[in-house]
Specification:
- It is built from four helices and 17 strands.
- It has 266 residues and is mainly β.
């Protein structure tokens, strides 16, 4: 039996057809792009740190270290504010669209790396220098080789491991230009993944232009599309074509923590 198990792992491949071509993904070489929910993880939107603590009362001790029989923790976090998370169009619509309703998890994908451009933006009476990912940058970075990715992963530059722990609140972090989101929608990118807390500006008066443009203001034809924020792509992963696996936790909510796996194609 052990030899059979080893053999299965040695040949674990997924073959799929996309746009008339056949591809093979090596499932034994996947890379995890997830930042897990943890007290030392990244956060945004002024939420406090994640809290994970045992249930303790007069009848029960939910910690083996404290003398209990099992570990039994409460976890306090915000799906939009902590760690890697995926959100549905329900994030901007009146009608609920639970992340638990998604039923497909593998997508042909392309990874690109971009250094957001400095752009002066009017904020009240002041001019503020924002860092923006533009439509032109994305257009130039996408490979025109017929692959036509359904998912796009954006790694922002510079890229370092401080992204695993940052508190993004009140930092005016980089974001996606509204026309860049429009470009993705009209070029049939259905799943957008990036290493930032949001596709939109931290303080934008509630406009959420990139969210609305990506989902075409709640167009039902885009109801299956998702946005995943706060991924982390290590520098040794090269830009190019992949298969991405997006697995959100089954929450009856517009967003949930998610596991993101990236598989090479060969």
């Amino acid at each position: 039996m052990p030899s059979l198990e080893i053999c299965l792992y040695e040949i674990m491949e997924l073959h799929f057809s996309h746009k008339g071509n056949t591809y093979c993904a090596d499932l034994t070489a996947g890379r995890d792009l997830t930042i897990p929910i943890n007290p030392d993880g990244p956060r945004a939107w002024y939420v406090p740190q994640v809290r994970i603590s045992p249930v303790l009362n007069q009848h029960f001790t939910g910690s083996v270290a404290l003398g209990g029989r099992v570990n039994f923790n409460d976890v306090f976090f915000n799906p939009h504010g902590h760690g890697t998370h995926t959100e549905t169009m329900g994030h901007i619509t009146k009608h609920p669209m639970p992340i638990a309703d998604l039923s497909r998890f593998f997508f042909p994908a392309q990874l690109i790396s971009l250094a957001p451009e400095c752009c002066s933006v009017q904020q009240g009476t002041a001019q503020i220098d924002d860092q923006i990912i533009t439509a032109q940058q994305i257009r130039m970075a996408l490979h025109d080789n017929g692959f036509a990715p359904e998912a796009l992963l954006i790694r922002t530059l510079p890229n370092d491991i401080t992204k695993l722990h940052r508190n993004y609140s009140n930092t005016n972090f980089p974001y996606l230009a509204a026309d860049a989101a429009t470009y993705l929608a009209y070029n049939h990118v259905y799943h957008l993944l990036l290493d930032l807390p949001s596709v939109d500006r931290e303080e934008d008066g509630g406009e959420l232009a990139a969210h609305h443009n990506f989902w075409r203001n709640g167009d039902a034809s885009r109801a299956h599309c998702t946005i995943t924020e706060m991924i982390f792509v290590p520098n040794d992963i090269m830009d190019g074509n992949y298969l991405v696996q997006i697995v959100p936790a089954a929450f009856e909510n517009d967003a949930a923590p998610s596991r993101i796996m990236l598989y090479p194609l060969r």
